[in-house]
Specification:
By secondary structure, the chain is of the alpha/beta class. Helices cover about 40% and strands about 20% of the residues. It folds into three domains: about 5-80, Winged helix-like DNA-binding domain superfamily/Winged helix DNA-binding domain (Arc Repressor Mutant, subunit A), CATH 1.10.10.10; about 95-170 and about 285-310, 3-Layer(aba) Sandwich (D-Maltodextrin-Binding Protein, domain 2); about 175-270, 3-Layer(aba) Sandwich (D-Maltodextrin-Binding Protein, domain 2).
Length: about 300
């Protein structure tokens, strides 16, 4: 069948339904999510398979899964759906340049760092809504971004990390440091060796994260026993409270030194770590046109980073 004929038979709604079926792995679950009947979903999938003359889904007792043809359609179909949605958002912006939505993903640790920038942006652009989702452990996949659920992701980069489908713009380097509460006995020391900290309790992010990997590497390279990782958490505030109130130590990105607990801040300790870089980057999907409001947010973010270079 000619592609022009297929194009006349396939609707954007069909692609939306097919995408939901693959996402939920079940026609019944997709129907419930979309608010339609299961027979209606089955009919749409059958019409797509008829139009392309290939099987798009493998059916089994555990549900459905896309075939190689289904995966090909899903990859292009998501992009087509996204471009249509982006077009609608562009039209809304042209009709009202002061309104729109920006969908951002970043680790929870960035929220305090960028809170003043977010507040200023909202004051300056009251008609633009920001949806900010916390990303899980940094990885090179970023499924939320790949699925077009986010416009941009802000994440720490472990090079080489991201696939060819992403654009990566480095914002700043955020090296790891050893830190303690500003009122800690260690904060008053001008010279500290890693060996001095062997018996100290540590609060860190989980072992698979970059800062904790670097910390354990530093102890190994100095032929020292492994650090005592007493608490592992992504919570910035919990780490800050344990540093200030509990006498813990941590390995953390330098940008987080501005965090405080109970009015007491944190302090970088004079401890040498292995050479490293922990760049923070803006990540977007290649060949995806960003809406004007997203571009506006990105420009404000770049300006904020440049004007606060001393904090990063």
């Amino acid at each position: 069948m000619a592609m022009t004929t297929v194009g006349r038979r396939v609707r954007f709604r069909d692609l939306e339904v097919f995408s939901a079926v693959v996402e939920y792995g079940s026609m019944a679950k997709a129907a419930a999510h979309l608010g339609v009947t299961q027979p209606a979903v089955s009919e749409i999938v059958a019409s797509l398979e008829s139009a392309f003359r290939v099987r798009l889904l493998d059916r089994g007792p555990q549900g459905v899964a896309p075939t190689i043809y289904g995966n090909a359609l899903l990859k292009r179909g998501l992009a087509a759906l996204d471009e249509l949605k982006q077009g609608l958002r562009d039209i809304s912006f042209l009709a009202d340049p002061s309104a729109g939505e920006v969908r951002i993903g970043w680790p929870e640790s960035f929220s305090e760092l960028l809170s003043s920038m977010v507040r200023a942006f909202c004051v300056e652009h009251p008609g633009i809504a920001l949806r900010i989702d916390h990303l899980p452990i940094p990885s090179g996949e970023l499924p939320e971004l790949h699925a077009r659920k986010l416009d941009i992701a802000l994440t720490r980069v472990h090079v080489p990390q991201f696939g060819d489908e992403f654009n990566v713009e480095i914002l700043f380097d955020d090296p790891a440091v050893i830190a303690a509460g500003a009122n800690s006995r260690w904060a008053r020391r001008r010279r500290i060796e890693l060996a001095d900290l062997v018996d100290e309790p540590w609060v860190v992010t989980p072992r698979e994260t970059l800062t904790t990997i670097l910390l354990e590497q530093a102890f190994r390279e100095n032929a020292l026993p492994a650090p005592k990782l007493r608490v592992m958490t992504f919570s910035v505030q919990l780490r800050a409270h344990l540093l200030v109130d509990g006498g813990f130590l941590t390995c953390m990105p330098r940008s987080l030194l501005h965090v405080s607990a109970g009015g007491v801040g944190l302090k970088e300790l004079p401890v040498r770590l292995p050479p490293h870089t922990f760049p923070v980057a803006i990540v977007t999907v290649k060949n995806r046109t960003l809406t004007p409001v997203v571009e506006l947010f990105l420009e404000r973010l770049r300006v904020f980073v440049r004007s606060n270079a001393a904090r990063f």
